[in-house]
Structures are given as C-alpha cells and as structure tokens.
Amino acid sequence: MFQDAETMRLTGHHAEGEPDEARLRAWYGTRADHDGRLDLAVVEKATGDVVGEAVPNEWDAGNEGCNCRIAFGPGAHGRGLGTKATRLIVRYRFERLGPHRISLEVYAFNPRARRVYEKVGFVPEGVLRDALLWEGERVDAALMSILAPGWFEHRGWPERVGRASSYKG
Ligand SMILES: CC(C)(COP(=O)(O)OP(=O)(O)OC[C@H]1O[C@@H](n2cnc3c(N)ncnc32)[C@H](O)[C@@H]1OP(=O)(O)O)[C@@H](O)C(=O)NCCC(=O)NCCS
Predict the structure, then answer these.
(1) Dist. CA 113 → ligand 1 center (Å)
(2) List of domains in the chain
(3) Torsion of CA 149, 69, 45, 110, to 10 degrees
(4) Which of 115, 117, 118, 132 maximizes ligand 1 atoms within 8 Å of its Cβ, making it the mutation to test the pocket?
(5) 106 lines ligand 1 (CB under 6 A)
(6) Residues 47-94: tens digit of each pLDDT
(7) Which helix (H) or strand (E) holds 40?
C-alpha cells in the first residue's frame, strides 16, 4: 500500500522517498497504546492476505464522535471489499461502542471512495476548499458524516430504505 503511488495520492499521503519499513513497523507496533483509535487490518478470507486497513480514529469523548479512514493496496480495489469493510467497521462502532457521529474526508479526485461512503450512508456536509496540495494542484475535500439515528434506520443500506424513510441524513 505504501509503495503504490496511486494509493498515496488518493489518501493524500505525502511521503518522501521509499517507505521506511522500520518506521512503519514502529508506527503499527504502537497503535494499540492509543485509546482514541482502533487500527484494524483487513484480511481477505479467500487468500488470508492483508489487503488494507480500516481505522476509526480521533475519538472525541466529549462530543461522542470519531473520524474514520480506510485504504486498501493495489489489487484489492473495485471488488466490493471496501464497501464490505466500511459497513463492518461503521456497524462495529455504532452497535458496540455507541458514538453519535462518524466523519471522514474524501478528496474531489476520489469518486470511487465517495461512492462507497454514500452507499454505506455517509452524507456530504460541505467542502474543505483547497485542502490538499498535490503535485502543484490544490484539491478540495468533501466532509462527510453518518449519525447514529441514520445508521439504526438503514444499518448501512440507505438506498434500500429509500424515499419511505424518515431519515434525512
Ligand atoms: C476507497 C476504497 C476503500 C474503496 O474500496 P473498493 O473495494 O475499491 O470499492 P468497492 O468495490 O467496494 O465499491 C466501489 C464503488 O465505487 C464505484 N466506482 C468506481 N469507480 C468510480 C468512479 N470513478 N466514479 C464513481 N463511482 C465509482 C463502483 O461502481 C462501486 O459502486 P457500486 O457498487 O455502486 O457499483 C479503495 O478503493 C481504496 O482503498 N482506494 C485507495 C485508497 C483510498 O482511496 N482510500 C480512501 C481515502 S478517503
């Protein structure tokens, strides 16, 4: 994942040079020491390979909110894994840990990720203008969120609930 230029672009990860394995191991090796985040590897059952990560982070206890990030390496994109992992991680948060709000940001040049978040029930809230500077170009980021009442109405399938729903995002 960290060696793939496209994944780094889509996540807005500014890296200098080759990924430093020792530094990455130190980073992942210390994540469990932090109370405000849960770094999970996504393992594809068919192969047993780690294909990416799903990370609820930035837990804000006072406001019962958190952020969420997800990224898969090349070869794992476009096969439905991201949608499934996002549904699982959002369900885990809402149904086991009880936040009110989960938010995330997605860059304007990443319509695939935006589609995944919309499918699971994230709603666009606004635009962070020129949030990213990537190879000389400034890129907007959409701010999206999902709230507990919406989740418990559609449980990750807002398009099934559709127009009959009282849920307004
Ligand atoms: C974003 C990511 C997690 C999505 O997971 P995924 O497994 O690739 O996505 P899925 O296959 O589950 O679903 C992709 C959806 O986007 C749609 N899609 C694909 N390309 C699209 C495009 N250019 N425009 C609009 N929709 C698009 C697909 O049709 C599908 O929707 P559908 O089920 O309604 O047909 C994954 O692609 C990834 O890790 N990308 C690199 C890192 C990244 O972008 N992370 C997110 C940062 S915010």
Answers:
(1) 4
(2) 5-164 (3.40.630.30)
(3) 100
(4) 115
(5) yes
(6) 999 999 999 999 999 999 999 999 999 999 999 999 999 999 999 999
(7) strand 40-43
